[in-house]
Amino acid sequence: MRSLRAAAATAGLLLTVLIPATAHAGARAEANAAEPENVALTATASASYTPGWVTADNINDGVLPTGPIGPNEDVWNTWPQVGEQWVQLDWPTAVTVGRSRVWFTQDIDGDGFGVAPPSAWKLQYRTAAGVWADVEQPSAYGTQATDWNTVTFAPVTTTSLRALLTASGAEEGKGAPGVQEWEVFDNGAAPQYQVEVQAKTQCFGGTAFASVNARNADDEPLTIALSTPFGARTATGVAPGRSAYQSFNARTATVAAGSATVTVTGPAGTSEIKAPYPAVTC
Ligand SMILES: [Ca+2]
Ligand SMILES: [Ca+2]
What we know:
Elements: H1 4-11, H2 27-33, E1 44-47, E2 76-77, E3 84-104, E4 107-108, E5 114-116, E6 120-126, E7 132-134, E8 149-166, E9 174-186, E10 195-204, E11 207-216, E12 222-228, E13 231-238, E14 243-249, E15 254-255, E16 258-266, E17 269-277, E18 280-281
Parallel strand pairs: 5-9
Antiparallel strand pairs: 1-3, 2-9, 3-8, 3-9, 4-5, 6-7, 6-8, 10-11, 11-14, 12-13, 12-16, 15-18, 16-17
Bound molecules: calcium ion (2 copies).
The site of one calcium ion has 7 residues, from strand 9.
């Protein structure tokens, strides 16, 4: 067994994360800048099928739907085609997104002819390997034509998203799917704080500890939460120049390399920093 001093010396790691300071007067502007954006507006839309009187780019033209039927200049559908259909958004550079919403169309006549919300649908993203994969942990896929159907999912970084739509009708001309507008949101820019983070592993009497120190180098009080697989601690109102510190007992002699998560909350919102620590065997 190595001595405490030797183990601490070899296992210690200093990681300093300096994030550009947020100006005091700019806090409100920073909070606004962090609002999620509808990145669908910067994408190119395409679709499995588009009849001549509407266009695929009406899917993301930014026109806010107001009811179950929109003008042809603002909507898209596959009439008279039914079956499996899709709409797709492609970005020139990757986006990171975790929330989307779609407003469908309901325009069926007395004989059942027309456009209707799909009976089912789901979101897929193009992976780094270039294949389509379902988004993970999706919330419910609603099918309203009188309001937004919002879906949240585990964030993905991708250049393409598509919505697979299953037509509600089985007969040509009856129940083709239609979309009035499709919005896709990024997570907003993270607010910026100046915080110095240090994570390390140490041995005390044959037991491993992971310790995390986060110093507030900003000019206003911050709430700093320290989290590791061995425990978590939140310090509120950490004054400028002061630190949040905790040594977490791993209750075992060996700890694998990992990372602590430091979550910083201030006037501009919440930001997260990962601080890696090395493996240690006591
Ligand atoms: Ca349009
Ligand atoms: Ca539209």
